[in-house]
Specification:
By secondary structure, the chain is an alpha/beta fold. The protein contains nine helices and ten strands. It has one domain: Rossmann fold (3-Layer(aba) Sandwich). The radius of gyration is 17 Å and the shape is globular. The structure holds adenosine-5'-triphosphate and magnesium ion (MG).
Length: 240
């Protein structure tokens, strides 16, 4: 029995800059190429350009890579200019994060789209308000998640901590991936995924290497370097 809602997926990270946007965009591209009119949601973005009409960086990236039309405030209701953690930006800019606004935008997108990919903000314990962390918002969303981790030394601790925190909240973790630069001689990168799986019970889907647009088109990259993402999202989105 599926104990979670399967028309959406939360992309959680062990940290900022681990590749949540990149993975979200790839999964969205796969779904849309399969004819599923999936869309994307980023509850809070910081470091947003001030000019009107300029999309937050993550939205612009997903829009370009996945070929999906995104707009604020629908796909990113809370935005701050300062490139800081949400609470820090909120306090400096004098505008607290409105969870009500986030939930309103999230509900509207869920009603209007067959599949929603939600990207996290930094790591799962990032504060959004008084006694309220990103992981609390994840719990409210009620979506299962995929964890994106970096491959290098230190990832065992970060990934196990993130997974344990999610499991303590009874948030379903479907799997984890590593993403980004990986030295083929790096023994830490070679051994970490199986240790993380062994100690968490969560499956490792695979490693996503660096994409170089000048070397190959994105679809060829996904097919040859990260085919496990097709299998993962295909099987998941097809669940009744
Ligand atoms: N596999 C990859 N190949 C090429 N570039 C990548 C890859 N993964 C991530 N990047 C690039 O690395 C940078 C950081 O990745 P990304 O923006 O996806 O991280 P993030 O976890 O979403 O960060 P944030 O917490 O700021 O949202 C971006 O410029 C992104 O395009
Ligand atoms: Mg991002």
């Amino acid at each position: 029995m599926v104990a979670y809602s399967n028309n959406g997926l939360f992309i959680a990270g062990t940290d900022t800059e681990v590749g949540k946007t990149f993975v979200s965009a790839i999964l969205l591209r796969i779904l849309r190429r399969q004819g599923i009119n999936a869309t994307y949601f980023k509850p809070v973005a910081t470091g947003c350009p001030a000019g009107r009409g300029l999309l937050p960086e993550d939205l612009a990236f997903v829009q370009d890579l996945a070929g999906v039309e995104l707009s604020e405030p629908h796909h990113c209701p809370i935005r701050y200019e300062k490139p800081l953690a949400p609470m820090a930006a909120a306090e400096l800019e004098g505008r607290p994060v409105s969870v009500e606004e986030i939930i309103r935008a999230f509900d509207a997108l869920r009603k209007g789209s067959p599949f929603l990919i939600v990207e996290g903000v930094g790591g799962v314990m990032v504060p959004l308000g008084k006694d309220y962390l990103l992981i609390d918002l994840m719990e409210q969303f009620g979506l299962p998640c995929l964890v994106v981790a970096r491959p290098s030394l230190g990832t065992i601790n970060h990934t196990l901590l993130s997974i344990r925190a999610l499991q303590n909240k009874s948030i379903t973790v479907l799997g984890f991936v590593t993403n980004g630069k990986k030295d083929p001689t790096d023994e830490a990168a070679a051994t970490s995924p199986s240790l993380i799986s062994r100690f968490s019970g969560i499956p490792f889907l695979g490693h996503i290497p660096i994409f170089r647009p000048e070397a190959e088109p994105i679809d060829a990259f996904i097919e040859s370097k990260a085919p496990f993402l097709y299998d993962f999202i295909g099987a998941f989105a097809a669940c009744p």
